[in-house]
Design brief:
binds ligand NAX; about 325 residues; Rossmann fold; 6-stranded parallel β-sheet; single chain; 3-stranded antiparallel β-sheet; about 45% helix
Amino acid sequence: MKTPVRVAVTGAAGQISYSLLFRIASGAMFGPDQPVILQLIEVPVEKAMQALDGVAMELEDCAFPLLKGLVLTSDAKVGFKDANWCLLVGAKPRGPGMERADLLKDNGKIFIEQGKIIDAVAADNARVAVVGNPANTNCMIAASQAKRLPAERFTAMVRLDQNRAQSQLAKKAGVDLTEVKNIFIYGNHSPTMYPAYPHATISGKPLLDVIGDKAWLQGPFCETVGKRGAAIIAARGASSAASAANALVDHVRDLTTPGRVHSVAVKSNGAYGFDPNVWAGLPVRTTGPGSYEVITNYRMCECCQAKLAVTNQELVEERAAVSALL
Ligand code: NAX
């Protein structure tokens, strides 16, 4: 039998985790023959830890053959110990009247601490995936604290945005969504993100030959993808959870499957004109289990470049807002 993968998850009693943990334990993330140990981290608050106990009982009651152990803790040093994957889902939500800058700073403190602890206690091959918002900047903050683990190991999730874009394009073209390829998310996980459609294809043809409606692509399409999170809150009264968990399963599974090409927020190193030190959504090709290369040869028209500049600017401003913490 394979050695179990140790997966640390923060925010483990939250709503995304309530979908996520069961998918991991069932084998959806690491495959049907890969055992896992879940190391579940919550805040040291009685209500949260009690809720976590309930989640653990339900995990036991599923009798997942691949689930080889559960750790429940409010101590990050215990939770991240020897972890091969650190899934940073927990974050402070934006409260009423709270400014984005305050949210950045409050979450910044959490991700500084978690970055340090992961670097100190996680496994040598540890990989990090950040979901908690503002995800790109939280990821940059955590990576800034690491001395042992290289910056490339720290990724943030923009896969939900890619999945949303793929579905919208398939609906518009009236095709099965598997026909839609090469749609990638550039920049921030926020309404400024850019789902760059010019190099996408539908049934092997350039997307622009199939969907000629440029006004729809530049307007409603980009807006629907960028503001989908808010639309779900308005409809459901709660933010996306099952689809976010599913996207994280896709993010990690594709990062561990060589050859997959997908959108991941990574240190830009200057690709597509992004500031080299921001974490921007970019197309990557997985080259080995957990390693990847950024695909840098997509040509961008002037209109795309202008969109990339906007989302880059937002990332640069977010970094400036937390610079005192770094
Ligand atoms: P919930 O509020 O349901 O759960 C968050 C959980 O995190 C809570 O149980 C809380 O106690 C815990 N937590 C907070 N600080 C923690 C810390 N320092 N250590 C451990 N646990 C901690 O939120 P949920 O709906 O699960 O969303 C989680 C995060 O995902 C939010 O920041 C949300 O904005 C973000 N999202 C990111 C998405 C993305 O595509 N990148 C999409 C979905 C989601 O909006």
